[in-house]
Amino acid sequence: MIFAFKSFMKTILLFITALIIASSFSGCFNKNGISAKYYSDCEEYYDMQGYYHKDCGKDDLITYEEIADAFKEPKKEVKNNKNVW
């Protein structure tokens, strides 16, 4: 009886672990970043001067620029109080 309960708990634990791992990798990697959809909804239009514009990535969870900014070290500001003249 105790052995059956332990194997049942192991099965439940493995199932929950697999569910958590599957849900954490459910985002789609597209050319703009990570989003819930594989193809981003892009807004394409021409302005009054005839220039083509394409706005993409509004539905992204996180963009590649945000990922790169997270790993950059913050710039240290150097205060120079010395008067050169």
Structural overview:
The chain is an alpha+beta fold and 85 residues long. It has one domain (2-71). The chain is built from two helices and five strands. The chain has helices at residues 2-24, 64-71, and strands at residues 28-29, 33-35, 43-46, 52-55, 60-63. A three-stranded antiparallel β-sheet has the order 1-2-5. It has a two-stranded antiparallel ribbon with strand order 3-4. The longest helix is centred in the N-terminal third of the chain and has 23 residues, at 2-24. The protein is flat. 2% of the residues are buried.
- Major β-sheet annotation: 3 strands, antiparallel
Overall geometric form = flat
What's the multimeric state? single chain
Mean pLDDT: 75
- The number of helical elements comes to 2
Number of strands: 5
Structural class: alpha+beta
Q: How much β-strand is present in the residues?
A: 15-25%
Strand order of the largest sheet: 1-2-5
List keywords for this structure.
20% strand; three-stranded antiparallel sheet; 85 residues; two-stranded antiparallel ribbon; alpha+beta
Summarize the structure.
This protein is α+β, with helices and mostly antiparallel strands and 85 residues long. It is 36% helix and 20% strand. The longest helix is centred in the N-terminal third of the chain and has 23 residues, at 2-24.
